[in-house]
Amino acid sequence: MSEASKLLDELNDRSREVFRKVVEGYLFSGEPVGSRTLTRTLDEKVSAATIRNVMQDLEFLGLLDSPHISAGRVPTQLGLRMFVDGLLEVRDLDQEDREKIDATVTSNSQDVGQILDRVGSALSGVTQGASLVLTPKHEAAIKHIEFVPIGGDQALVVLVFDDGHVENRLFTPPPGQTPSSMREAANFLNALVEGKTLSELRRTMKEEIARKRQELDSLAATLVDQGLAAWDTEGDMPERLIVRGRSNLLAEDAHAEELDRIKELFDDLERKRDIAEFLELTEQGDGVRIFIGSENKLFSLSGSSLVVSPYMNADRKIIGAVGVIGPTRLNYGRIVPIVDYTAQLVGKLLGDRNQG
């Protein structure tokens, strides 16, 4: 049992009710909640002095904090954790929210990336937070690879998979590449590619390059190295993280300290090389998980919360995740069913596409 759960069990009915009202008031308004406000909302009629005594006890337990002398109270990170684990009332998904999310996946687009981009935008719009969508890597075997120079310092790699899926990705080849060296690199890879996924090809390629280095001119070998490095990240995790709605966190009335924290959050996100950690957050079972403040190890910040859920393929294997990030003062009761529904919808969508 967690520390938060133990504390909740130790509270009497009055303390529990006062605590719940403080947290709900804070999540609604973003302002500290005072004893006079509580005297008007509590079911039990008690004096403001009695409520102040209860709030002091809750503060002593580490569940509430007083930002200023003589001000009301706000929940601490421990308090929010206790509220989310034991007192949160999760609403049913609003029909309007459901329709907005559904509308993103009714498009005729065949590109999974475009669909998930739209899902991220819808999730951001519905929640008024920033959305995160971790897209799955394509696990089908590769049929053919081609490098196409497109001018300047850019080239295109075309991946054709056995299941008919085609991906085109831009990358920057090493200096001095020629069409001839690119064809040589593609021929080398196509001789190895049959029946292999991208991750398997990468491993085979390293072994083959070690054995056949002399058979390739140095430029083509470098292209092979850098070309596949552009598709894959360290650890064989070539997922892509889509972030939408960061402006929702930059409200006009936000304090300078909040703005600095939000900028730091996104700087941290953009610095992340191994976004697999986002997926690891979800791998301890399905369903929505909530990370509050410093529990949110993806961003190592104390002032944000992440509500995240994995989505699965038809074999019940976790292949990606969707989430919403915002200040700790999120409307958790509304956000949780939105994230849960979106994750289930994305999983079903990708499962249906793969079976079609």
Automatic annotation (TrEMBL):
Residue ranges of every copy of the Heat-inducible transcription repressor HrcA C-terminal domain listed in the record: 114-336
Key words of the record: Repressor, Stress response, Transcription, Transcription regulation
Domain of life: Bacteria
GO MF term set: DNA binding
Function: Negative regulator of class I heat shock genes (grpE-dnaK-dnaJ and groELS operons). Prevents heat-shock induction of these operons.
Record family assignment: Belongs to the HrcA family.
Protein name: Heat-inducible transcription repressor HrcA
Native source species: Marivita hallyeonensis
